[in-house]
Amino acid sequence: MSLIVQKFGGTSVGSIEKIEAVADKVERFRKDGHQLVIVVSAMSGETNRLIGLAQEISASPTLREMDVLVSTGEQVTTALLSMALNKRGIPAKSYNGSQVRILTDDAHTKARIREIDDQRLRGDLDAGYVLVVAGFQGVDENGNITTLGRGGSDTTAVALAAALTADECQIYTDVDGVYTTDPRMVDGARRLDSVTFEEMLEMASMGSKVLQIRAVEFAGKYKVPLRVLHSFQDGPGTLIRVEDETDMETPTIAGIAFTRDEAKLTVLGVPDTPGVAHKILGPIGAANIEVDVIVQNVSIDGSTDFTFTVHRDEMERAKGILDRIAAELNAREVIADDKIAKVSLVGVGMRSHAGVASQMFEALADVAINIQMITTSEIKISVVIDEKFLELAVRSLHSVFELEVEPTGVVVD
Amino acid sequence: MSLIVQKFGGTSVGSIEKIEAVADKVERFRKDGHQLVIVVSAMSGETNRLIGLAQEISASPTLREMDVLVSTGEQVTTALLSMALNKRGIPAKSYNGSQVRILTDDAHTKARIREIDDQRLRGDLDAGYVLVVAGFQGVDENGNITTLGRGGSDTTAVALAAALTADECQIYTDVDGVYTTDPRMVDGARRLDSVTFEEMLEMASMGSKVLQIRAVEFAGKYKVPLRVLHSFQDGPGTLIRVEDETDMETPTIAGIAFTRDEAKLTVLGVPDTPGVAHKILGPIGAANIEVDVIVQNVSIDGSTDFTFTVHRDEMERAKGILDRIAAELNAREVIADDKIAKVSLVGVGMRSHAGVASQMFEALADVAINIQMITTSEIKISVVIDEKFLELAVRSLHSVFELEVEPTGVVVD
């Protein structure tokens, strides 16, 4: 008998029919003898409906009351799923964030979990109940309702799994696992049986939006085995595992992530004096614009070019700020370009394998793709290229690194 | 500065526009310097929507989960009204039943309030907040969400007023007060400035459905001054008062209540033996059919006629049961009649005024109305008549007892 935490998102519980289907699935696990904690989101559309009501009242409604309002969405789902389980003869009980006592800080609409009281839950688990817990919500130490922000239900599931030392935390989604790259772009894209937490973090932040980053971080920190599966198709999904357990079998590259969401800004001819990077990026940060890739070329004749990327939606605003700064710094020109894409190779295996970067650059050169920017981390190499070459780049790299082939055992370099 | 508890029902908060209108009203009271606790129901339609979802899953969903489900309705309203007040610069805070701690028993969907913790509320009142409390809901001693049953928001308001020893509990509705009788039937029907709790109970149970009976009982028990007012029209409403405070001015008759909801059942020719009333009414009660007026005529030749009224919807079912009993008792016949109406004079003043009953019967005889059944209590005289004479009876009585005339002082008989 295992203790399993399962999380079903808004789409998976988006109608009574789907809630019944989830109840069927839970019933099968129950018959296999597992103890189960089910974390649910609001029915799809419900959170937006509630936010819509608030916005009819005010463009900036009180955050405390926003949490009171939207937290009702998950509570409704917990009641309905519990009823569906009860109908099947399965003892089940709903819990909201306050009833579990998922203690958070008081940062309304983006609270962080501090502590989970597992006492009541354990009592009901031991008494044979399936527990249906409202995701995404908690309560601060003064009893105020808080929410963890959108997608926080994944975090709730992982945190409950950690608190209960569950055998596995299963996140049910609309995909059947994590892929080597987007299957819509590369025919040979392959579902991974497992990835490491670090790889998953890099994949998630690069737009493979299967899991919330916070949930993955949390799972990694508390070593909760996490599995991504399809809500309504059977299959093993992808296990996100603690790295060193199966280190020997780790392939060099786990997958290829990419994004079209960024834009590139270049300040040309900046006098290369100490503190110039801060003078450029300080005001950008102050304007709450997130910066991703940053590259500064070596100085030629005492002036340099400074380039960075931001989210495409922020390009115009960033350009406005840079134009002002450029004038102050006597820089030559500011160029903005939103026709770019970022492609990343991700894999903890590349740590111990030299030559991955040059192999990547060679593969891109072979298909005549010019690299505009490069950044690297321990387990990721990213390049910025012209957007129109994105598909060509991803397909070439997927093929060169043989990602369509199932790894069969120890990888020898 | 007074402490006022105000309750707004589902229709009064049925849309964002109406919630804004309630906020405007609260703002005016606030400017007058009052401390305010606002009790709200779910937006009209919302409770039915939620019940509909549950019934898609099961015809008899788990009661514990029904409470979890429907209690979200009021929580949504508390958040929205708090936002609307905050927008007006008024510090306001929502509370659900668990947050106040409205402790109830564990009878899900029809729980009774045991205790209210007024500590947090008082703290926030003293800190200058308007408190917006979810009506209709509480929490049992194990932290399970409970609800008080439909209309329980009135009870919440009265219970909060009692716990906080509020100066007044104001129930906002879609009528501007309690009338001597239904204004749609009698042009001269007059809004009463005040009625006693006992009168209000008799009026409420007779179909003047302005307030929940439980709320009135509660208010009477804890001597909470209760006022019925119109949500969106200004006016003094009707005060429901503790009797002895203004006893001298109490008029003989407060008003005339009536109902068309009942049906009459008569068992003719029942052998008049001990226990016969129980033999007839026992099975009716066992079938959960509520009985209202009961009359048994004196025995003639060792047999009697036994008559009672039930809700019209239950007539057929009651008839079926009586046919079986009549056979067992060797009674002659069972007659069912749903073409009846009940008319009641209500007034604590009639206690000390002899002759009200005969005056009533004389008034009905003057317009040739035959009385089929009579029952009396200390403060009420009810007659059952043919339904087609209902309007004539009510108008005649309203005129004979001069209810269209505002009482001016001490009534001398």
Polypeptide structure, described:
2 copies of one chain form a homodimer. By secondary structure, the first copy, chain A, is of the alpha/beta class. Chain A has a domain at 3-173: 3-Layer(aba) Sandwich (Carbamate kinase), CATH 3.40.1160. Chain A has 12 helices and 20 strands. Chain A has helices at residues 16-31, 46-57, 63-87, 97-100, 119-126, 152-163, 197-205, 213-222, 276-286, 315-329, 356-366, 390-400, and strands at 3-8, 35-40, 92-95, 102-104, 113-116, 130-134, 137-139, 145-147, 168-173, 194-196, 226-230, 238-241, 255-259, 262-271, 291-296, 303-311, 333-337, 340-346, 371-377, 380-386. In chain A, the strands form 5 sheets. Chain A has an 8-stranded mixed β-sheet with strand order 3-6-2-1-9-11-12-10, sandwiched between helices. The first copy, chain A, has a 4-stranded antiparallel β-sheet with strand order 13-18-20-19, with helices on both faces. The longest helix of chain A has 25 residues, at 63-87. Chain A is globular, with a radius of gyration of 24 Å. The model of chain A is unreliable at 409-413 (pLDDT under 50). Chains A and B meet through helix 1, helix 2 and helix 3 of A and helix 1, helix 2 and helix 3 of B.
